[in-house]
């Protein structure tokens, strides 16, 4: 397959952040292999969604993003859905990105599975995505904002705390 990188986009509000270009610190760690989650529609998917979290040394913590990706995949039958960890666990973003491209994705959206736009979301993940996209041609990559402040999160907080949702 012959691909060409068309662009890597990050939210405009992050471009004004003078620290977004800082280098990511590399760590050498032992990684545990994880399975990828993706849709099983049998259709060729030209769009892909990668959910990325921090990663943990605790395998059960890493399993959570796989479960979320599986739930998302059920709602997006025409999109290739997978997950990645920034560090401490596998798959990493490059492995997830490669899997998306191998499955015919031309437009890859990277969604940081974080609550707020700290350094990982505004600096590290966009740089990692740009690095991944540069390895392929004719592929666009878009890094979206993290979960952030959202009305639906309020419902989750109330439910977990045992308060009625009105």
SSE order and pairing:
Layout: E1 4-9, H1 12-15, E2 47-53, H2 59-75, E3 80-85, H3 93-102, E4 107-112, H4 119-133, E5 138-143, H5 151-161
Parallel strand pairs: 1-5, 2-3, 2-4, 4-5
Helix pairs in contact: 3-4
InterPro entries: CbiX-like, Sirohydro_Cobaltochel/CbiX
Protein name: Sirohydrochlorin cobaltochelatase
GO molecular function: lyase activity; metal ion binding
What distance lies between the first and last C-alpha atoms, to the nearest angstrom?
52 Å
CATH class call: Alpha Beta
- Quaternary structure state of the chains depicted: single chain
Number of strands: 5
CATH-scheme architecture: 3-Layer(aba) Sandwich
GO molecular function, one term: metal ion binding
Protein name: Sirohydrochlorin cobaltochelatase
InterPro entries: CbiX-like, Sirohydro_Cobaltochel/CbiX
Keywords: Lyase, Metal-binding
What can you see in these coordinates?
- The protein has helices at residues 12-15, 59-75, 93-102, 119-133, 151-161, and strands spanning 4-9, 47-53, 80-85, 107-112, 138-143.
- With 166 residues, the chain is of the alpha/beta class.
- It has one domain: Rossmann fold (3-Layer(aba) Sandwich), CATH 3.40.50.
- It has a five-stranded parallel beta sheet with strand order 1-5-4-2-3, with helices on both faces.
- The longest helix has 17 residues, at 59-75.
Gist?
One of its GO terms (molecular function) is lyase activity. It comes from Galdieria yellowstonensis. 34% of the residues lie in helices and 19% in strands.
List keywords for this structure.
Rossmann fold, 5 helices, disordered N terminus, 166 residues
């Amino acid at each position: 397959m012959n691909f060409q990188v068309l662009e890597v986009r990050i939210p405009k509000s992050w471009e004004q952040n003078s620290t977004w270009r800082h280098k990511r610190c590399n760590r050498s760690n032992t990684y545990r292999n994880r399975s990828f989650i993706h849709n099983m529609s049998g259709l060729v998917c030209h769009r892909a969604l990668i959910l990325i979290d921090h990663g943990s040394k605790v395998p059960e913590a890493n399993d959570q993003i796989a479960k979320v990706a599986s739930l998302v995949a059920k709602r997006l039958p025409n999109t290739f859905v997978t997950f990645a960890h920034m560090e401490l666990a596998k798959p990493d973003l490059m492995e997830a990105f490669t899997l998306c491209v191998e499955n015919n994705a031309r437009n890859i959206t990277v969604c940081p599975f974080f609550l707020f736009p700290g350094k990982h979301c505004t600096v590290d993940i966009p740089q990692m995505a740009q690095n991944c996209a540069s390895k392929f041609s004719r592929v666009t990559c878009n890094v979206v904002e993290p979960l952030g402040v959202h009305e639906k999160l309020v419902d989750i907080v109330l439910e977990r705390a045992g308060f009625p949702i009105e």
